[in-house]
Amino acid sequence: MKTTQWMTLILMVLVAAFSRLIPHPWNFTAIGAMALFGGTYFPSKKLSMVIPLAALFVSDLVLGFHATMLYVYVGFLAVVLLGWTMREGKTFTRVGTMSLVTSAVFFLISNFGVWMMEGLYPKTAQGLVSCYVAGIPFFGNQILGDLFFTAVLFGGYEAIKKFAPDFAVKASA
């Protein structure tokens, strides 16, 4: 990979990590979109998993660690895996739909982690439902953030491929 291509990837990781560190509405960050983007565009499947998790980890070093981290990281890995399904045939509709799907997948996994690890809810079906209901306000912001940053990342990268192809990274299976 060329230096310019590495610079593109590193810049994207830093922007995603930074989006968690600046003041923002709860869950309105670039991390979910970065995970989807990574699964779709990064040149190797291994790299597609490592780079988004690196962005998450870098920002967690500043924000602090918590009991539900395993579920958060697994949730973002699931988003990367769903991104793998979009390596071929990216359309506006498909990218938008997958952004919504990955928001829902992350919501389900991360809130399950809150229910399991935090002790805020009884370990019953009703407790799990209560946990998911309590997470709905965060979910709305996550959907908006994922849609916004997915549009920025995917749209921006397609523009880079068209107007500055030396900075683009070719995906491989």
TrEMBL record:
This is ECF transporter S component. It comes from the Bacteria. Keywords: Membrane, Transmembrane, Transmembrane helix. The chain crosses the membrane at residues 61-83, 95-116, 136-157.
